[in-house]
Amino acid sequence: MPVNHSTSARARSETSRRRERPALPAELLILGLAVLLFARVHASVGLDVSVATANAQHLQSLERALHVDLESTANHWLVDRSGSAVAAAYFYRLYYAAFVAVLAWAWLRHPETYLRARRTLLVMAAIALLMYWAVPMSPPRFALPGIVDVVSRHDLFGGHAEQVGRAGPYSAMPSLHVGWSAWCAYTVWAALHVTRPYLAWAAWLFPALMTLVVIGTGNHYLLDVVGSALLLTVCVLATSPPLGWRLRGRGPPGRSPSGHS
């Protein structure tokens, strides 16, 4: 009987994927502890209103000097279009569903990418908390006159934007709404850019749309988004193997290419 080599190759690939997939209980424990720790620390840093306001004023001055102070214009445009404002508020709240879906998909279908992405995610969270502690920042809805808090006005949770997740009222820099959505795009791109390049690049529309949403709703400055892009870039570089190892197709000395962490 002839051997179907393509079927055999797919079976070997699936067997290898299952063998490399991290244990679900361990991953749930790691991520659960990370979420609890992040929320606890986030709630206790960046609470000095005067410092956060001063930092926001410095950032606004820099944006004016660079002619990128778009927040008021974007906010007023969105407020004048009630349908778009409602959609933006829901997108702002519900994007966590996409975040969880990407995390689960990567673990299930692309465990080698999942391990890299999970390391990147944890480092991003740690650096973001450090920045929130060192540079608290009032968002435009607090620091710019005339800005309407679009999420609070059309909130999915009944108009209580500040009560939903009490942490972080003065943690505008960097925007983790943009940061986490960019992490999702990076994870999809890392998994699919060889086999499905169009879909991989399309994933970057997610953080692009989130950028428009966070600026239009009065939650972030344009430079907060720049900070998010830099944060992701630094964390990807910090958690990736050195270039020489990648070019030789092997992991660090003493470890196999598929070694887990």
Q: How would you describe the overall organization of this protein?
A:
With 261 residues, the chain is mainly alpha-helical. It has one domain. Helices cover 71% and strands 0% of the residues. It has helices at residues 5-20, 24-42, 49-66, 71-79, 82-109, 111-134, 140-143, 150-153, 161-164, 176-192, 197-202, 205-216, 222-239, 243-248. Helix 10 crosses helix 13 (222-239). The longest helix has 28 residues, at 82-109. The chain is globular and about 55 Å long. The termini are far apart.
Summarize the structure.
It contains 14 helices and no strands. By secondary structure, it is an all-alpha fold.
List the helices and strands and how they pair.
Layout: H1 5-20, H2 24-42, H3 49-66, H4 71-79, H5 82-109, H6 111-134, H7 140-143, H8 150-153, H9 161-164, H10 176-192, H11 197-202, H12 205-216, H13 222-239, H14 243-248
Helix pairs in contact: 2-6, 5-6, 5-10, 5-12, 6-10, 6-13, 10-12, 10-13
